[in-house]
Please model this.
Amino acid sequence: MSSLAIRAEGLSKQYCLGQREQAGRTFREMLAGAVRSPLQRLRRLGGRTDGETFWALRDLSFEVRTGEVVGIIGRNGAGKSTLLKILSRITEPTRGWAEIRGRVASLLEVGTGFHPELTGRENIYLNGAILGMRRAEIRRNFDSIVEFAEIAPFLDTPVKHYSSGMYVRLAFAVAAHLEPEILLIDEVLAVGDLAFQKKCLGKMHDVSRTGRTVLFVSHNMGAVSALCSRAIVLEGGEKAAEAATDEAVRYYLEHNLGGAAMAWTLKYLPRAQPDLGDRVRLERLDALPEASEGFRYGEALRFRIAFRAAASLQRLACALGIDDMYGSRVITFESDRHGATVDTLAGRSYRVEVAVPPFGLLPGNYLLSVSLYSGARYEDYAIHFGTLALHPLAAGTAQYVAPRPGRGAIHQDSVWRIEEVSPEQHEEGHAPPPATIAVERRA
Amino acid sequence: MGESSEMANRRGHRAHPDGGSLSIGTAVEERDDAEPPSVGLPVARIEPSRSWRALGLGELWEYRELLYFLVWRDVKVRYKQTVLGVLWAVVQPALTLLVFALLFGRWAKIPSDGAPYPLFVFAGLVPWTFFANAVGASANSLVGQTHLISKVYFPRLIIPVASLGAGLVDLAITLALLILTMAAYGVGLSWRMIGLPALLVLNVLTALAAGAALAGLSTTYRDFRYVVPFLLQLWLFVSPVIYPVSLVPDEWRWLLYLNPMTGVIEAYRWALLGAECNWRSIGTAWPVAVLASLGSVAYFRRAERRFADVI
Model:
């Protein structure tokens, strides 16, 4: 029988709306308040606060057995990070309690406490100590960390001279060598280049096999599915579901692909002056009644773009671009290729609608950007107004096609036939091609 | 955050055999079944704490290695710019000494109880410089390291304490400088120097008392850090750095004694310059410093619950 590693009962965390302003609470105000109403001040010192509050986490109870790898999934603001912060003792619950058996290490961010002036070697020790490793432990794992991070030649170079890739690799390498009984992880996997991510995932997998208890918070349904046996879905600070991973992921996708209607006001990328347009808004027009953060695989993309022209221009066109997470352009949809342009007058507002039929964009994270351009000088005039994450994730639906690393971002159906042949047939060359290639289209 | 296609490789989708993939398919099923011996492990209970709680010194001791590394980091980074680092530790008290000696010793003719004024003021400056720098650094230490506080757990007190620790290196440098200056004035070392370690403890305790409380206040109230330099400036004038206690009228001296820095400075002058031992100031300084440290750390512990939320 497994023993419990984590037991939480009624965990709740309340924040004061305007806690941020409270963060900016000043001594001057406190003094002024003390003069005005000593009673109120006393109450505040007593820890009580007035004003509006909200529950980031409400009455959450769950158990994790020793050696289990449990995923925590939910939208932004569902309380995932708050939960990890409470379990790692960074912040206290307002109500409820949790019992944790064994040493806990939390990876809420890699590279915490790295100092740019210190060398790689020094930062390994410093970061290790901050993450809770003993000196002897760091020394024992030192070579393995260096090897994992692939930074051996730069060990005695200050990390400020590292490339961002090296920096992140070193940071993850230190964290990956923690040896706690319980590991809390918050989406640190999405770091580094593809090869390194693969290594990270492999390491995570090793960790999960050593009988260590892991709580893994992620937006990444693929990683959760791969690593976790069970998952808890949080919604608005409460537990919405707790089930075997596949079931929990399906629940999450079904309930969260739809959500609050969403319109994004795009900010232009840092530029001295927007010379084509401003106040660019992007709105989703979905087949679904509500818009959402993600897109289903095999779903048409429909957007409405609104902008204000900053100048009077001939044949202004609009483009929608999709970049993968490494910054490579996957595809660009350009309005002028379809004859859609507009002659603008400065200060007037314009609206663009675009529909892109399903084109097999594989599940993954992408950046969506809107460009405006005029005339032949596309490059010169294109302004990227902002980027959005695109998640065509519909794992669990029949159309789901898992991506494979290094195989591109777009899936296109094709027809294949493989059969065994005799040596003679092998030697005699290819059979005449079939007269027609039947291509089945998916509905 | 980005999601790589790699990670979206789902369970049940066996990875491609020709490289570029992982076989992460059956992470759960393949797990080694050896049950870890979890029975003997410590159980930590997480729950809302009472507003005043234990000082948590035991936990501080558990995290002593982190304390060591944070001090080591501060010292290392400080002296990494090599020449300037060490130089600054020397130049700052030397320039202050020069100005004070000229201004207050030569021109204002402030008495120095018989010792040469430059030595007299230097013996006061050594503990004062440590105190002022350490308190200033402590007070700002939490605000400057929000990334640590919001991401990792450790006893928060370690951060202001580490700032004190880093100041000790500078203290050692200025102390060596003082002893050299004494030699230049023909003042030798005496047996009283065996009192120095106890003195250092008193000096550190005083800095801790001020530093921990100010760190807590600066974190809770954003504008408090602007108050700190002003407080330190004021504190300099109510400590007998540039003047002897004998300059203060008798009926007011008790007020001066309540400031533990008075005892610290007088004790330095006793140990190094052979000044008369003022038991009243030194005797008051110890209990005041100890009580103030306890109170300050208790306040810090109370305030630290909210650090991660307000920072």
Observations:
- Chain A has a mean pLDDT of 76.
- Chain A has twelve helices and 17 strands.
- The first helix of chain A runs from residue 19 to 23.
- Chain A touches chain B through 98 residues (CB under 8 Å).
